[in-house]
Amino acid sequence: MQQQGVLMKRIMILALMLLVILQNACISGSGWLEHHPPKIRAGTTSTIQLRLGVTNGNADRAYKSATMHYDITGKGDFISTKMERINTTEKVVLFTAEIPSLPATMRSKQFIYYFTFDMDGTERRHPEAKKQLSVTIE
Q1: Cβ atoms 100, 70 nearer than 8 A
Q2: Nearest 5°: phi and psi at 56?
Q3: Could you give the C-alpha distances from 138 to 42, 67, 101, in angstroms and in order?
Q4: Is 2's pLDDT higher than 70?
Q5: What is the pLDDT of residues 61-107, one digit of tens each?
């Protein structure tokens, strides 16, 4: 009986230590959010925004640049365009990129893209997998 009490006490201490470690990991993190149109209409330009933030530190110092890489051929022929930094606060940096007017003759009806950005001197990629937006031909 006494051994069970000691074991339960050790489990509770370990659980509490794990909770403190997880809480600290969440507090000192960073994050991103993107805004894009649900579909892209051929013949018009569209905008994609990438919002990068920090919970600890200064976002203006952490994020220096961002690039959007996109493919309209469906063959992996990615075009890179540097994103414009349009707004900065202590915790958030907002980048924007214009999706060029796409031709109605596109073979692939998909706009495939991903982002890279410099975070504290290291290039990062978001999302890990490429994303797709449908292109509407009218």
Answers
A1: no
A2: -130, 125
A3: 7, 29, 13
A4: no
A5: 788 899 999 888 778 889 999 999 988 888 888 999 998 888 877 76
User: pLDDT higher for 75 or 1?
Assistant: 75
pLDDT on residue 81: 93
Long-range contacts made by residues 75-80, C-beta under 8 angstroms, separation at least 24?
A: 75/108
| Residue partners of 21: CB distance under 8 A and separation at least 6 | none
| Structure-token pair, residue 59 | 């976002």
Tokens 């659980």 sit at which residue? 15
Euclidean distance between CA atoms 67 and 82, whole angstroms: 4
117 and 126 Cβ atoms separated by less than 8 Å:
yes
pTM: 0.69
For residues 17 and 92, give the distance between their C-alpha atoms in angstroms, rounded to a whole number: 31
Dihedral sign for Cα 132, 97, 29, 63, please.
Answer: positive
What's the CA gap between 60 and 56, in Å, rounded?
12
Peptide bond into 127 cis (omega under 30): yes
